[in-house]
Amino acid sequence: MARKFFNGTVKSVKALVESLNSFKVPGPEVVDVVVAPTFLHIPAVVDALRPEFKVAAQNSWVKGNGAYTGEITADQIADLGLEWVILGHSERRHIVKESDELTADKVAYALSKGLSVIFCIGEKLEEREANQTQEVNARQLQALADKISDWSKIVVAYEPVWAIGTGKVASPEQAQQAHAEIRAWLAEKVGKDAAEATRIIYGGSVTASNSKDLAGAADIDGFLVGGASLKPEFEDIIKAAAK
Ligand code: PGA
């Protein structure tokens, strides 16, 4: 599974969609490719993108339609025909200061509207240096487990905060260790079947050149790609994810 998301102008988003449409990549039976434009660009992307690519929102509100000026609800995202939303991205958690609990409530609400959720977790640099990676991941996962019991529409995205947009990718060994621990956590707290079925994708400075080695790790099931998703090399990342 590969991911993509971008900011952009009307013009640059159009160019990105044209580039994506020219990719020769395996079909959705092999790899899900989900692109997450900003809300403003979603309708144009949905209209122009080849239908085998799916479109995700980058966020959704914790409740349904109501007086929440400036927020966009899962109801509206589903109404537009979208199947996916990204929740708990580190920029939401650490810049906008969304708590574990709010994030979990958002996920539960999005699931209740039939959306699939890319649920992002991951530790900050000082937490890794203090050997707290699994503790942080487990805390963020537990907050969600307190709110949901069905994980079939969850993709867990492990994104160490220190690796996002920094060019400092986790090594395949570091990422594999975190993914294996997340899967073990799922097996213990949610169940063996959920642990096997849940896709755990890695994000943080993924490029075409590091994606092959990362994809070779047993518990890495795909990627959440930021910067490199805006470049032609995204095609190679998709191919690497389609292992
Ligand atoms: P990056 O971004 O691939 O540029 O590190 C990842 C992300 O923002 O989730």
UniProtKB/TrEMBL annotation:
Q: GO MF terms on file?
A: triose-phosphate isomerase activity
What does the record list as GO biological process? gluconeogenesis; glyceraldehyde-3-phosphate biosynthetic process; glycerol catabolic process; glycolytic process
For this UniProt record, the keywords arranged alphabetically read as follows: Isomerase
Listed pathway(s): Carbohydrate biosynthesis
Return the CDD domains for the record.
TIM
Matching entries from InterPro entries are given as:
Aldolase_TIM, TIM_sf, TrioseP_Isoase_bac/euk, Triosephosphate_isomerase, Triosephosphate_isomerase_AS
SUPFAM superfamilies noted in UniProt: Triosephosphate isomerase (TIM)
What superkingdom heads the lineage?
Answer: Eukaryota
One GO location term (cellular component) = cytosol
| Binding partners and assembly | Homodimer.
Q: Which family does it belong to?
A: Belongs to the triosephosphate isomerase family.
Stated name of the protein = Triosephosphate isomerase, cytosolic
State the organism named in the record: Auxenochlorella protothecoides
